[in-house]
Amino acid sequence: MKKLLDIKAIAQRYIAFSNAVDYESIADLFDEDAEWIPISPIKPLKGREAIRTAYLNQVKKVNKPIINDKYFADGFTCIVEFEVQIDENTIAAIVDVFTFNEQGKIIRLAVYKR
């Protein structure tokens, strides 16, 4: 019998790596041909190495801890709602929509600001 993927656990690892500012490990969660659709003004990218470079050169500079994360998983999709404390008076509400392949790699990550 084929083992079912725990996509929620993979998404939780992504969030933990983000909070640890470990973007090398985040990039390793992506499939080689993954698609990444971040919040504007960062441009969408395709391919693990392009995504890795963007995390290291763009996202790392503005990283803030993720708090109040909630996970909703079904099939190969996991939605994560969370908040980021931008500054003392500002909290941003974000939604990440992960799509995984059968190997448990992220094939698409779309990020939305609520």
Automatic annotation (TrEMBL):
Residues 11-108 form the SnoaL-like domain. Pfam families: SnoaL_2. It comes from the Bacteria. This is SnoaL-like domain-containing protein.
